[in-house]
Fold:
Amino acid sequence: MEFLPTRFRNGVRATLIHMPYCPTLTTYIGVESGVIDETRDTNGINHFLEHLIFKGSLKWPNAEEIENILDARALDYNAFTGLEMAGFHVKSKIKHAPFFLDMFSDIVVHPRLAQERIDHERPLLLIEMRDEERDPGSRTDAAMRALIYGTEQSVGWELHGTAENTMRFTRDDLVACHREGYSADTVFVVIAGGMSIPKMEAMLESSALMDLKSVKRVPRVRPHRVSEKGISIAHVADDKEMMVSVGFDVGVRTESEGATLGILGTVLDNEGLSSRLSRRMRGELNYCYEVSGDFDISQNRGIYRATASVDPANAEKATRELVGVFLRVARERVDDDEFNKAQERISNQCVAETSSAAVEFFAGREILGWEPVLPEAHADRIAQRSPDDLMDLAGQIFTDDNLHIVFTGREPESGLEGILDSL
Structure:
């Protein structure tokens, strides 16, 4: 594998990865435009815009034709809107790759944003919004962000915005969002697969991405934690189940700290039964069938969150034990065997055998603002971390004054104040 980071004549950034003998090519177009860039009046507009990207463009005006071709020829394709990013990716056989880069660059750069498509998509967005509101995981995530960042910062808001905004957005609003958010300064591309780097460069040079221009926009403000010293608790009513989620503000971390975070996350939850969270909450105490934890970090913010579905009668005990897992890893040095196992597991994941895995790795580094390196170079940096590094970083993050708890479901039988008193 070899890679080339480059910047094209109009300022668009790209990372091109040649993978000899790989039969596919994956293209990812990232756009640094998301909820973090929205105001109260525009909350949800990036999500609305993402829905319309596949609904016709200058070169591909027919949405049904776009969908039919993608379903017939693409091996995989999707799009998303996040707090800080929108992303569009497509994976195909190499022979179809120039065609799909041409299509995706055009639909991203030159969307039609036809009024009839806007009107058609509006009720679908409202349905999606209602589905999200009924999903305990989505509601827990939104409540945790609101708890950590407050509701005066846009990263504490809903990704899909409000029903009122969705009904109010005009075509002019969407055009303005695209013009300001989708520019040569905010768009980057990652391409990986069995095509030579010069051919990738030639494809990009002839694509609609070269039509992008620099646009001055309001500078981003880095989010900050707003919770006061002490434990913060939120409750999301739901009659169906009880979920407890414990979260910590991670802040912004360097690449070396990111390598340590990977090991720390694996110690806590390795998606198996031997992790600290699973062993304690399921194996030893039988408080839940499944518990999951993960880091959600970017250039401007970060959260670690662990969630478990529990019996409401055990909510107080389960919460106390869940918090205890984090406090122990912050106060007691992880022994060498446990550290080495987690270190090896996370290092083994630094393998990009497919074009989509390579794109995920390199795009992830771009999103985090880290310099591109080969996966094995990142594995080397993981190998340089020590148990002392882990304990030091865990001690910075897992503190009493950075503890946030969200209950989804019925309020715990002891009440929120009772939970606070028990911790």
In short: Residues 41 and 165 are 7 Å apart (CA to CA). The radius of gyration is 23 Å. The domain at 232-422 is CATH 3.30.830.10 (Cytochrome Bc1 Complex; Chain A, domain 1). The chain has two domains: 2-211, 232-422.
